[in-house]
Amino acid sequence: METDDVIVKRVPKSVRIIVVVAAGVLLQFTYGTVYTFGNLLPYLVSYLRWQVDATRTSGSMIWLQSFMNGVPFSMLFGGYLERKIGARKSIFIGSLIYT
């Protein structure tokens, strides 16, 4: 499959599949951490209670999980942004904000 994309044309055809798979793994690793906070929250609270403040409860850390629940809503905004300014620019903006 040929492309007119200037950036993709710079990558040799024999290496493109490796680049795509590596980028996919890195993206899934990065974005997947958002969904693990629900499982990590009890351990995080336990550690903070043990090391920092003995009065810490799960309720005092629920803001962290609530903040992570905003990710699906930002995906809606990203889809709208992609239609307005294009995929590459919206991916760059989203990655910059996420990072």
TrEMBL record:
<dbReference type="InterPro" id="IPR036259">
    <property type="entry name" value="MFS_trans_sf"/>
</dbReference>
<feature type="transmembrane region" description="Helical">
    <location>
        <begin position="61"/>
        <end position="81"/>
    </location>
</feature>
<dbReference type="GO" id="GO:0022857">
    <property type="term" value="F:transmembrane transporter activity"/>
</dbReference>
<dbReference type="GO" id="GO:0016020">
    <property type="term" value="C:membrane"/>
</dbReference>
<protein>
    <submittedName>
        <fullName>Major facilitator superfamily (MFS) profile domain-containing protein</fullName>
    </submittedName>
</protein>
<keyword id="KW-1133">Transmembrane helix</keyword>
<feature type="domain" description="Major facilitator superfamily (MFS) profile">
    <location>
        <begin position="16"/>
        <end position="99"/>
    </location>
</feature>
<dbReference type="InterPro" id="IPR020846">
    <property type="entry name" value="MFS_dom"/>
</dbReference>
<feature type="transmembrane region" description="Helical">
    <location>
        <begin position="17"/>
        <end position="41"/>
    </location>
</feature>
<keyword id="KW-0812">Transmembrane</keyword>
<keyword id="KW-0472">Membrane</keyword>
